[in-house]
Amino acid sequence: MARRWIAVVAGVVAALLTAPVAAHAAPTPTARIAKSVKLSALRTDIWVYSPAMKQRVKLSVLTPAGASGPRPTVYMLDGAGAEGDVSDWITKGRAGRFFADKNVNVVLPTGGKGSFYTDWQKNDPKLGKPMWETFLAKELPALVDKRFNGTGRNAVIGLSMGGQAAFALAIRHPSLYRGIASLSGCPPVSGLANEAYVRTTVGRDGGDATNMWGPFGSKGWRAHDPSLHLDALRGKQIFISAGSGAVGPLDLQRRVEPDEGPREAVTASSSALELGAYRCSLEFALTMRAAGVNYTDGFRLIGTHTWAYWEQDLPALWPVISRGLYS
Questions:
Q1: Positions in the chain short of pLDDT 50
Q2: How far is 12 from 15, CA to CA, in rounded Å?
């Protein structure tokens, strides 16, 4: 009997020793500020590691000089042509100068060209698999509020491609944003003309919009069309603007770089782009009006798709979207 028990125990011990050891689950990575560089009293550049994006994302954060109390936050999105490692809002739109005396944090991400600042469904051969929505709406706000003393009251501003993204983020995360502004954008994405705008914009940077939201008219496109989710916009402070495409004095004064091409061609292209944005923005404004969604518009009788006009939009939109940030 004793020998039998010894044999049983020995077998059990052998089985335990040879059984595979269950691996401990790796800790889930969390978003974090990996690097921070204070460039001036008003600007800090940060690099945030994003688990969704699987990389570091660089952002500039503008803060008011000498302010220590809690303050709201404005997120500003570039257009499709933004290049470099600093937001065009800083280098071309003079956002730093405009917000210098405003008691607000201003967050300006870089690297979003051609992405519509959204979560892509599939990997794109050119653009990869951006996950901007998850980064901007879920991973980033808590980090910004903690590091820069934010109140949790936010607004989002975008130009061109970023204008559509601003409204898409707002309808998908209505509790996060109190103010929304689109400058020369095309918020709705339903209809042949609006789909063409999206596909052309993504294609400009080598991507395929089918990898972003799927086939046109599918669930992915409908989910990002603010004209189909107007109830999510009710009660928000909304500003929408665009120019008619007509050339004005600011276009004649515009500096055209040698690598942009002849002035006439640059102006004609800017005019055509703005005309499309004007048509689409006006269509969306009328849709909101018909549904009883309040907004303020800054539609212009002249103006092309250029920074001279967007810089002028900042003082026009600020009184509108700021109403929801301090009350």
A1: 1-23
A2: 5
Question: In one letter, which amino acid is 122?
Answer: K
Residue 254: the pLDDT is: 75
What pLDDT shows up at residue 260? 67
**Contact in structure between 303 and 243 (CB atoms under 8 Å):** yes
In terms of Cα–Cα distance, which of 222, 188, 155, 218 is closest to 291?
188
Q: In what order do the strands lie in the sheet with 55-62?
A: 32-38, 43-50, 55-62, 105-109, 71-77, 150-159, 177-183, 237-241, 296-297
Q: Which pLDDT value is given to residue 28? A: 74
Note the pLDDT of residue 24.
Answer: 56
Separation of alpha carbons 269 and 159, rounded Å: 17
Please identify which residue in the block is written with the tokens 């089985």: 15
> Which tokens hold the place of 60?
């500039």
Cβ atoms of residues 117 and 169 within 8 Å: yes
**Do 32 and 143 form a contact (C-beta atoms < 8 A)?**
yes
* Per-residue confidence (pLDDT) for residue 17, from 0 to 100: 41
Residue 18, pLDDT score: 47
Tell me the chain's radius of gyration from C-alpha atoms.
24
How far is the CA of 145 from the CAs of 154, 173, 207, 228, 327, in angstroms? 10, 17, 33, 31, 17
- Three-state DSSP at 105 gives strand
Residue in this structure with the two tokens 């000498």, named with its chain if needed: 66
Q: What is the CATH number of domain 28-324?
A: 3.40.50.1820
The amino acid present at 99, given as its one-letter code, is F
pLDDT of residue 8: 40
